[in-house]
Design goal:
Layout: H1 2-14, H2 24-46, H3 50-61, H4 68-77, H5 83-95, H6 100-115, H7 127-141, H8 146-167, H9 173-182, H10 203-206, H11 211-223, H12 227-231, E1 233-237, H13 240-249, H14 253-257, E2 259-260, E3 278-283, E4 297-305, E5 317-324, H15 326-341
Parallel strand pairs: 1-2, 1-3
Antiparallel strand pairs: 3-5, 4-5
Helix pairs in contact: 1-6, 5-6, 5-7, 11-13
């Protein structure tokens, strides 16, 4: 949203529409927009701007691995069946003084996203405007021969049909993976994940799998515990995907309310008076030996793993840690308190 706003401001300044900045209605509209987002801004301020922390974390873990060429390639692949429509729309906008502001906005947004190593799909919000312009331009170009309009429509349909398996998961994972392998889809780059490795399915599709399996296996083990053990057990996911899936697919309220993670905004939901003896852990790796808290459990056992071969979570483990000692519990509570300090202006010493 910030990038779109920046794109609009820059494009308005660079075109004849700069006169808008002399109109009171422009500033009233801007004020109305600010009023709408004030609650979020206040929350961000009170919690020491977690959005900035999240973007820094995203840069370190994902965005730094994005390849510049892939960003521009994705702009074509995302809307491939109608790419020629938005390209025509962009050209038409840039050549038309009345609507040039939209074309320049697009270019500014793309430059900003590219400079910030953004993912390709971050730009999707600007394309409806280009598609509308392209459709209008094509409609005018096809007059008065209406058969040209039908020809363009047919062309889009013919391009779309063979691409549907790439755009939508219309088959079961195994059939999709076999189809991609048969036609060498991996050569297009659509099977390359953020780890820069090719996989059987596109990352977006693989991200849809494994969550129900994770929740079912974790909840089944939890339900088989005796009541006293349940009462002193928490369920900890390494990241928000683990915690979110357990909360979403968990069938009982008792199970869902036990789920925590210190990743993302989930951290702020953990009660400060949290007490536990046992911990049901979900993660892709066993905690390292230097992870002090996990060294204070009496014993542990591997409960199960995610086995779906097409899931991005394949191999994630469910481990039950039993009987933490008082020192380990104190370390966990203090560690969470320190983590939360990053999102508290008062505790972080910011006045």
């Amino acid at each position: 949203v910030v990038f779109i706003a920046a794109g609009l401001v820059v494009s308005i300044l660079l075109t004849k529409h700069r006169i808008l900045f002399t109109k009171k209605h422009t500033w009233l509209a801007a004020l109305a927009g600010m009023i709408l987002i004030i609650p979020n801004l206040i929350w961000q301020y009170q919690h020491n701007w977690p959005v900035i922390h999240h973007m820094q974390e995203l840069q370190e873990t994902q965005l730094q691995y994005m390849q510049p060429a892939d960003f521009f390639k994705e702009q074509l692949l995302m809307l491939l069946p109608v790419s020629f429509v938005w390209i025509i729309g962009l050209i038409w906008l840039l050549r038309n003084p009345s609507y040039r502001v939209i074309g320049i906005s697009y270019l500014v947004i793309i430059i900003l996203l590219f400079a910030g190593r953004g993912k390709g799909y971050y730009a999707l919000g600007i394309y409806p405007a280009l598609l509308a312009a392209g459709a209008a331009a094509l409609e005018r170009a096809c007059r008065p021969q209406t058969w040209k309009q039908y020809a363009v429509t047919l062309l889009i349909i013919l391009i779309t049909i063979p691409l549907i398996p790439l755009l939508l998961p219309i088959y079961k994972p195994a059939k999709l993976a076999a189809l991609y392998k048969k036609y060498g889809i991996g050569k297009t780059g659509v099977l390359r994940w953020e780890d820069q490795q090719d996989h059987p399915l596109p990352q977006d599709f693989a991200d849809m799998l494994g969550w129900k399996e994770l929740a079912a296996k974790t909840e089944r083990f939890y339900n088989n515990l005796d009541d006293s053990t349940k009462a002193s057990t928490i369920i900890y996911g390494r990241h928000y995907g683990h915690a979110g899936s357990l909360r979403f697919y968990g069938k009982t309220r008792d199970f869902r309310e036990k789920v925590i993670t210190d990743n993302g905004s989930f951290l702020l939901w953990i009660r400060p008076d949290m007490r536990f003896r046992h911990l049901l852990f979900i993660g892709s790796r066993v905690p390292e030996k230097d992870d002090e808290v996990f060294n204070h459990f009496q014993r542990s056992q591997l409960v199960d793993t995610i086995s779906n071969p097409f899931s991005r979570q394949r191999g994630d483990m469910i481990i039950f840690y039993e009987n933490i000692d008082s020192s380990g519990l104190q370390l966990a509570i203090e560690g969470l308190r320190e983590e939360k300090k990053r999102f508290s202006r008062e505790r972080a010493g910011i006045k």
